[in-house]
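Exercise 7.
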Amino acid sequence: MSEHTTTPRIAMRGISKNYGGVRAIRQADLTVQPGTVHALVGENGAGKSTLIKILAGAEQPDTGTIEFDGKPVSITSTTDAIRLGVQTVYQEPQLFPDLSITENIFVGREIKRGARVDWAAQAAQIQELLDMIGLPQKLATAPVGDLSIAQQQQVSIAKAVAGEASILILDEPSAILTDAEIKVLFSIVRKLTERGVAVIYISHRLDELFEIADTVTVMRDGQTLDTYDIQDLTVTKIAELMVGGILTEQREPRSFHDVAPTLELHNIDVGALLRGINLQIRPGEILGLYGLLGSGVAEIAETVYGMKQPTGGHMLYRGKPMVNKGPAAARRRGITLVPANRSAQGVFSFQSIRFNISIGDLAKLSPLKGWVSKRRERDIALDLIKRLGVKTPNENQPISAMSGGNAQKVVIARQLLSTPKLLVLAEPTQGVDVGAKEEIHRLIGQLAESGTAVLVVTTDLAEVLRISDRVLVVREGSIAAEFGPTATQVDILAAASGAVTTRKAS
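Solution. The predicted structure, written as tokens, is:
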């Protein structure tokens, strides 16, 4: 545990926050010293984002107190936070692409002499800021949209410094950066801490914390567990704290080696997103793909379904070369996708359950071309509603009136209509309650038992272990490790965070 005697830059104590009936933060404390890099870590849903939103004034806590430099403060808006010196730099730069670096940094807060902009003063400050972030002076007038993502992020930091940041929140700053760009980022962060700026560093890449962080606060289930000096930790120790110890989700080992693969990916590249992806999935197998946000795991699902085109390597489907010609071609082959963004991509919100199921395969409902049998549509919908345990008064209920779990079952039911040979599930239980999650997991198991190859793409650590026969861990666009059903959550998280770079035999 870390102990300090200086007055903290920020001290948040007893913070809680509810959204309706959902408790995002139960009890959270965060104390950050000036001139230090303080890492904030936790699984997705642990409460990190909510806590940071409260500090940045975007949300207000239900309970708790906040002190700034030892004095109680009330942060009721983002304006309050900015006035205190709280600045946030997000993973995706929040800049105006058509404006220059200078214009982006000073927009809304121009240095003025009387009623006029003091261009000389702005130029002098820009020179100092560009020197600090390591960008050449000639870029001062360059449109931000012409810069690389790494350079745009540097500009975002410069903008925060120009805003007299005393607390800088870096939210997943390295997720989209190369190793060389990360080194530049760390150099800038160190310069800021030398000036006394307190930096809150949020990252899923646990290995990099040992290069930049002084202290680490771990969150789990809406609570802060404790704060630790970085020298007292390892990647594995942080992973154990995040998931609550060495946890296993045992499945009965099943062998598929004597069955020909449904799908094979050989050295697949997708631009700079994916590199050298190799995987096989066989009929009846549940293959889990796990990765942290930005790892490339979602892009693998999109490539399999034809939404992204490979730039290298080749794919085989049922032993024959497969050329990606888009989702329609994938569906004709027997490949279906349940998307992660259910509300935007998965359902017709104001249409009925019956419509949302039948739209998956109208040909099956058409004894005559161009004519849908209403009776057959209803019978099929009722059968799937019963099989999947969809809770609804009737098949005509609009999807918009259903819970998230039941809506997800309807999306899955649509895919079953065409009896897929390969089902790709992206975040299959995202946003559903525990009971619905259990039912969806049971359904996935039943599909596999019927011979469907199931590819589960998820950032849910417990889920991927619960339902998978094998797990491939994706990190920085590549397969980092492979695990069998006896792996632990700590094993998986450590591999995803950079502690393991080789495959384990399944």
